[in-house]
Structures are given as structure tokens and as C-alpha cells.
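Task: sequence in, structure out. Protein: Carboxyl-terminal protease.
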Amino acid sequence: MKKLVYLLVGLLMLSCSKDDDANPGPDPQPVGDTNVQDFMWQAMNLWYFWQGDVADLADDRFGTDAEYSEFLDSEDSPTAFFENRLRFVEDRFSFYSDDYTELTQNLAGISRSNGLEFGLIYDDANGNSQLDDTDPIFGVVRYVVNGSNAATADIGRGEIFVGVDGTMLNGGNYADLLFGENATYTLMMADYNGGDPVVNGKEVTLTKEEGLAENPVYIVKSFEIGADRIGYLMYNGFTNEYDEDLNDAFGSLVADGVTDLVLDLRYNSGGSVNSSRLLSSMIYGRNPNDLYLRQRWNDKIQEAFTRDDPNALDDYFATQTGAGSVINTLNLQRVYILTTGSTASASELVINGLDPYIEVIQIGTTTTGKNEFSLTMVDDPGRPGAPFIYSASRENQIDPENNWAIQPLVGRNENAVGFSDYTAGFAPEIELREDLGNMGVLGDDDEPLLARAIQEITGVSAKRSWQPERPIEAFTHNGMFTPMRNNMVLDKDIQLPPSLLERMPQQ
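Result:
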């Protein structure tokens, strides 16, 4: 076991020797080995947004090494330690992984997946409005990832499945059947049947592939309707590896003379904060003097960052991408954003960040309400200026005996008027649920949500009823069973101020 440490003068002392229900289950740990807990506590004490609200993370919590050692051994596993000792009661989104490689790949848009994106819906058989083990569940296909295994199968948007490998899905088995270790499974498909799905005999076999990379820029197109030139972009994840693709998409919209934009974030559960800044700049304009967001950290980090410069935590609209390309911008005064309950974190940051500057017209249903950002942390306390924050260039400095990572919430982003309180989500100006009986084709001008946005832009009423026959809202979706779930990652160079580092012991 590495040398145990405790706290002095209200600051984290680092070791001298080294560096939601979808959390991982395997948790092997030799008796008496608390390396993982030691790493978790040190990182959370320094960076966690609610550090001051968790008694066991207090700077003066321990007086001796023996007391600290006993605390680390107070739970029988790292998962129990994190959940019972470190997590703040109101924290819905911090999580952990026993494999930092898998986690960092997921954050880069690389995962083990068959490429089928779907939502899950349950029939409340017991009438208590809560999911029970016996409640029947069915899945609705949202879209298929290009180049995936599912893209080669006979399955597409709007199709319904009710079972896996001959077993009907319910509240007690769906997680194991769909998200367990089985690399290959066969879906039992069903007919709509007026909203009460009935097995139709069709089966679809899918195989999860390692290293599937999803380009989040899913659909880009323009419509010329009368005098209006309307752009449509379906963007399914804030993955910074694809920022150039995103900028190229806006380049095509600019070239098409687009004057209104429908931004489809209905299935976008978040990702990179900087990608949200770039996207917002592509919508609003290259305005480096306009504040996009302001970070707010826990008290001790906030004070250290802003002591010498009150504006040290301000981020402005961008003029170029990380690769140096000039931002292609539409310079809009309004934008139409399609949302559902799966719209979260960095997607909501776009809504909040743009709101002080342009009219944001939201169509769909209320978003998740994820207003905190996170950082990936590994057992590398010796990283200069940023202890524990993961860096690919420092993988050889991570404790080789500890593969765990944590993804704690470390701060909130306020917009230019100081607003960040949207834990209840953003409610739409125009409420419209997806329709199980008419999911439509994504990107077609008669797909219900896009058609409603086009009607709002043109003022021309479509020959359709806007009331869904069978309105749906998924209680969860497959993205919630990956390390990337509902994440807003602060992917920028973070350096603790020298005034804080100087008071820490040298490595």
C-alpha cells in the first residue's frame, strides 16, 4: 500500500510515492488493498464541486495516518466507498470506471457497440408509475450508426423490439439482456398495433464491435421553401475529435445561403464543453468579446483561480477550431433546437450559452437538466499543475496497479448573465413528443419535429395534426449504459494557480 496522507492547512497533501445505476459491477480488490480508495479520496477532496458539502471530504477530516487508513478500509470495495463516502446526496451524474482506457475511448466517441441507437419504454402494468421488475418493456429504434454492424442488418428507425434471444423484456431483465456481456444477441421485433406492440416473427441478430467510432455529425442538409433557406443539422454527440467535421458542415450551410437553422439535439446526451462553444460560435458568430460561459468551481479552487484575475474562468465565443480552422458561422439571430428528455449536458449548455444573445426556440420535450461539468481523473497525482487529471501523454505516469478512473462533477457553467440553475431541464416553447405511430425519417421535411420547426419558420401550416397518436418519452436509452452517459467534459488545459500549488508538498 502506498504511503498514507492526511490534510494540513486546509489543502490536499499528495502521496510521495506515486502518483448512476450504470456504474461498473466488477470490483475485484485484494483484502487490505485500498490504493483505489486513496486515489479517489485525494482527487475528490481537491476537485469535487461539492467538496465542502461532504463531511468525509473535509480538509480537516483526519488527524493521523492511522485514522485515514481506517477510513479508506471502511467499505469493502471502491464502488461502495465512492457511493457511500464520497458522493454528495444531490449528485446525480458523477461516476467511475474500473478501466480508464475504456472510459477515455468512450469520451472520444469510440465504444463497444453494435451501432443500434434506441430508447426504452415501459408499460406500467402495476399502475404505480414506477418501473417494476415485471413491467413489460419495449425498445424503439432511434437511428443506426453509419458503418456499424446494425447498418448491415435489416433494421431501422421506428421499428420496435420486445425481446432478446427469445425472452420478453421487462423491468427486471432488460439491463442484462441488452447491456450485459453478450457480444451477440437476437432481437424479437414487433408490430406497432396501435401502441400495444405484438411480436411479428421478425428477428434481427446484432453483434457488438470493439472500437466503433461514431461521427456525431449525422445529417446536414438544406431546404429551400418559398423564400426561406432552412438548414438542418442532426448532431448526436459533442465529440471534439470531430470538430472539423462540424465546422465543415457549417461551411456547407453557409455556402447554401441558409438563413434559419434547425439544430437537432434530440438524442444528444453531451460531451465536450469546448465543442459546445465551437457549435454556438458557428450559430451566433465569431465574437471573441462576448462571454459564452463562466466556470464556477468548489470554493478553494474558485478562490485560487480568481484571486489575481476575476475573469480567469471566463470563456468567450471562438474564432477558430482547435486545429486552427476559421469558424464557419451563420451569424443568426435565432435558432430552432429539437430536444427530448435525452438532450443533456453540453446540449443544454448550447441552449443556455446562446440564450442571452439570440432567440432560442425549443421544440420537443423537456431536457435532462445536467448543468455541471466533469473531468476524467486517474491515479496520476504528479501531473504538473493539474494533479489526477487524465492526459494521454502521461499514461506511463499512471499507477500501473490502478486502472480505475473517476468522472466527478467539478463545476458549473454560468452563461453571460450568470444563469446556471436548470437542474429541472429546459422546457420547450413548443411541446411535441415523438410519435410511436409516426417516427418519420430523420432529415425529411415531413418528419414530425422537423416539420413543426419548418412550419414555425415559414408560417405555413402543414396538412397534419401535431398531436401524436401514441406520444412516447423513453425512460432510458442505450447511451445511458456507456461511460459517456450525460457527460459534459471540460476539455481544456487546466492549471492550478501557483499560489495553490506552492502550499502543496513536493512530489
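The CA atoms of residues 229 and 259 lie 6 Å apart.
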